[in-house]
Amino acid sequence: MAKALIVYGSTTGNTETAASYVGAALNKKGWETVVKSAEDISAKGLAEGFDLVLFGCSTWGDEDIELQDDFVPLFDELDQAGLSGKKLAVFGCGDTSYTHFCGAVDAIEEKATGLGAVLVAGSLKIDGDPERDDVTAWAEEVAAHA
Ligand SMILES: Cc1cc2nc3c(=O)[nH]c(=O)nc-3n(C[C@H](O)[C@H](O)[C@H](O)COP(=O)(O)O)c2cc1C
Known about the structure:
Blueprint: E1 3-9, H1 14-28, E2 32-37, E3 52-57, E4 59-60, E5 66-67, H2 72-76, E6 87-94, H3 103-114, E7 118-119, E8 124-127, H4 132-145
Helix pairs in contact: 1-4
The chain binds flavin mononucleotide.
Flavin mononucleotide (FMN) is lined by residues 10-15, 58-62, 68, 93-95, 98, 100-103.
């Protein structure tokens, strides 16, 4: 069975909820999933044994883009995660009233692809609370291309 790792950074629970929707959608498509908070995982060898990696992270800061706190150590050591050649997709919650809507999603995508990760779908940027149907549709697209 194909195996996906979903790692999220979430302060108020929105991206965590989205991560659970992604996991459930992938399970329905026959994937085995591991869903973890970024605070419970270290970068070293993170992608090993997984066919697909999904990163979820909310955006903070104001003028500058700030990743959700728990995701920062992982982001800083992403080069140790073994992402080269690995299938990847990125999602996150934000708020369109900020200058950099879901800027953390873009930052993670850029860094991960720079390390050789292969995007299987465009990112999912969620404005406000995640809608289950929208997240499920995106996860199904990811699964179809992974
Ligand atoms: C102080 C503060 C700064 C924020 N900065 C941004 C931002 O720069 N870009 C953005 O898209 N959303 C921003 N947001 C919105 C959060 O990302 C949004 O509330 C999100 O749903 C939080 O997700 P989480 O519960 O998974 O942490 C900010 C929110 C706060 C309170």
